[in-house]
Amino acid sequence: MYDFDKLTDRRGTGSLKWDVPMGELPMWVADMDFETAPEITDAIRKRADHAIFGYSIVTDDWYDAYMGWWKRRHNLTMEKDWLIFCTGVVPAISSTVRKLTTVGENVLVQTPVYNIFFNSIRNNGRNILESPLVYDGERYSVDFADLERKLSDPQTTLMLLCNPHNPVGKIWDRETLARIGELCAKHHVLVLSDEIHCDLTDPECQYVPFASASNLCKENSITCIAPTKAFNLAGLQTAAVMVPDPVIRHKINRGLNTDEVAEPNVFAVAAAVAAFEKGEGWLDELRQYLYDNKQFVRSFIKAELPQIKVVPSQATYLLWLDCSRITQDAQELSSFIRQDSGLYLTEGAEYGSCGRQFIRMNTACPRERLRDGLDRLKKSVKAYGA
Q1: Residue 379 is part of a domain; what is its CATH number?
Q2: Total domain count for the chain?
Q3: What are 310-334's pLDDT values in tens digits?
């Protein structure tokens, strides 16, 4: 029904992703080369046709859309009071760091992890405390001994959880999330769970909201959610923060308002409502297309570039490529690839020192463009090893 093979030209549109020299193919930053659901475009067009763009409020249908989507899609019952509008997940993370921790305290992250976490911590004068995930050469898991040791440090007051996990595409199971929640509560560490990728799971795969894993998880957490990643709406600046505990919620609410990131632009509410109320069919077709894209990459690399290992994933449209059989310095490799063939990927060290031998690839594009990227990758890897 929806055309995900359409090659939309994004150059000249002020796109962060496509602001690259002619001849380069960007497959780095996590936005998609697909036009959003037409139901969302219709809602935005209808709002634009009104032609008055004054100050906006968060309307009741915004709350209803979030509550209905998470109940229907993720079996999580929210209350209206738990939700706070925010202009984005990253502003919410940075605001939480400022409001709920003190300068010089530790904020724990499980590396390799979304690189902007580091900015939100470092830019606010807090210490980044890494608890590296365990990589067995195939899959990632939590090192609970290391995690508890670092959570037990009285200077550690906040943990940033990535659920599902970017860049490795891991869906954390309920038992793992509950155990993380138990350890954090035991050591008086608040959890902020970034769940922006939650709707981009492989078909037949479901993510588990951190707040649903246990009562401890619910009462000691802040969850950041949005339609922006799943529906390709990042430029509209629309998100939500879900906080069940009233005391924590008050602090977050004050922080978001103090930072002036709690008011919607004129399209932010309409787009979110349209996504959650009318975008379900589009999203399900997208998820299948993305799954097929990832399978296409796996098959291509297995046949043409067996020295690269694709780490198994169940979520996101990002693939984590293990290049350790080629080099110990993926930064050098990714720079070579970009210079050699124009393929722009992200080197893994951006996600923590344990990502030095990896490269992240964004596969959210029409199949023809993806094939072009893989051909470029093959050419450059062979040239690199020559």
Answers
A1: 3.90.1150.10
A2: 2
A3: 999 999 999 999 999 999 999 999 9
- Which of these three, 278, 311, 341, is where a domain ends? 278
Q: Is 148 exposed, middle or buried (0-12, 13-18, 19+ CB in 10 A)?
A: middle
Full residue range of the structural domain in which residue 246 is found: 54-278
Nearest residue to 226 (alpha-carbon basis) of 256, 261, 253, 195: 195
368 with 221, same domain? no
Enumerate the H helices of the chain as residue ranges: 38-50, 60-74, 89-100, 116-122, 144-151, 174-186, 215-219, 246-258, 268-278, 280-304, 330-341, 367-384
- Whole-angstrom distance, CA of residue 347 vs CA of residue 361: 9
Over residues 13-38, mean pLDDT: 98
Beta bridge partners of 347: 359
The tally of CA atoms less than 13 A away on the side-chain side of residue 330 is 25
pLDDT in tens, 270-315: 999 999 999 999 999 999 999 999 999 999 999 999 999 999 999 9
Tokens of 242: 């879900």
Q: Give, in order, the Cα–Cα distances in Å from 366 to each of 72, 233, 363.
A: 29, 18, 9
- Kindly tell me if the per-residue pLDDT of 386 is higher than 80: no
Q: What is the CA 138 to chain-centroid distance, rounded?
A: 21
> Do the domain assignments include residue 1?
no
Q: Decide if 142 contacts 165 (C-beta within 8 A).
A: no
